[in-house]
Amino acid sequence: MVIVLVINLRLCGSNKPEPGACGVYRLMVALSRRIDLVGGLTSMQKTGLSGALFAASVAGLAGLSFLYGNFAPLLDPFPWPKAWTYGLGVLLVAACVGLLLTRAVAASAIIIAAYAVAWAMACVRPILHAPLSVGSWYGFSEALSLLVGVWTLYALHRRHDHAAATMALTSDRALRVGRILFGAACLVYGIAHFAYAAYSLAFVPTWLPARMPLVYLTGACHTAAGAALILGVLPRLAATLEAIMIILFGVLVWLPSHFAHPVPKWAGSPQNQWSETLLNFVLAAVAWLIADSLCGTRTSGTSHDRLSVARSGIGGGVHE
Question: How does DSSP classify residue 103?
Fold first, then answer.
């Protein structure tokens, strides 16, 4: 499902889309319009498929709490009754659905942001024990990325409705801070490739040539993307390429691991396998949302035109 959505958006984004290429995208827009009976553009129509990918992936992570009784990717159960865990899981899934509804975005974003903050706080202890170890910062960086993602999604939504009346959390300066934070997380992802090169090598498919150079290359790409986002040098290109690279990692590494026999050792337990797969697409969606936030007036207009065409062309074709 995730792959189909990604492919359809790329095809829809081309100057001359193939006939029927936007079918899945138009269908998702139509469904989101039916869900939001209050009226107006739905959140998905305002943030595009990057927002839909983010909501679906986070909902998947929350859904794992029903299967395992704790919150993935926090694999260690919290010391509270499982009924609380399931209840909070329901709340998170509802919040993800709320991200697709115009009038529920703010409350949903607050709930998911609180989840991200709780996850980040749970990752502070390893940092305090070994602050100079890049591995200690990895979980914290993932939680920070989730927070930046929901922050950016909410900003995109509000800016669409109130283009001339931005608030502190949706201003250009605030989004710049979010990009810097995600850039710092990308630096951690990149440095980890060099610090744990032997471990990272196991993730590279055996059919690819020059596997160790690929480990260093991807590490360098993560690092370069992070530096570009922090310094503001071609940030939109950096975020786009980061999103593509993370999506490719999910498609080439994590998704095939679910069909491998035997399951690779690096995949870990089924819970770890599923949580890492879903988290991979959460991070891809975050980079994608950041790229969307940097589209500017010209690209933003193109995106809105495409959405308007999708709305008016549900029953017909896509017209230029």
Answer: G
Please check whether residue 159 is in contact with residue 153, taking contact to mean a CB–CB distance below 8 angstroms. no
Rounded Cα–Cα distance for residues 237 and 243 (Å): 10
Q: Which residues contact 46 (CB under 8 A, 6 or more apart)?
A: 156, 157, 160, 161, 307
Cβ–Cβ < 8 Å for 186, 223: yes
Cα–Cα distance measured from residue 258 to residue 88, given in angstroms and rounded to the nearest whole number: 27
Q: What is the pTM of this model?
A: 0.78
Please report, in tens digits, the pLDDT of each residue of the chain (320 residues total). Answer: 444 344 344 444 444 444 444 554 454 445 445 444 443 345 555 667 899 999 999 999 999 888 888 776 665 656 667 788 888 889 999 999 999 887 889 999 999 999 999 889 989 999 999 999 999 999 999 999 999 999 999 998 887 766 545 577 788 899 999 999 999 999 999 999 999 999 999 999 999 999 999 999 999 999 999 999 999 999 999 999 999 999 999 999 999 999 988 889 999 888 889 999 999 999 999 999 999 999 863 333 334 443 343 333 333 333 33
For 89-103, letters b (16+ CB in 10 Å) and e give: bebbbebbebbbbbe
Core vs surface per residue 160-199: b (16+ CB within 10 A) or e: beeeeebeeebeeebbeebbbbbbbbbbbbbbbbeeeeee
Distance CA 6, CA 281 (A): 11
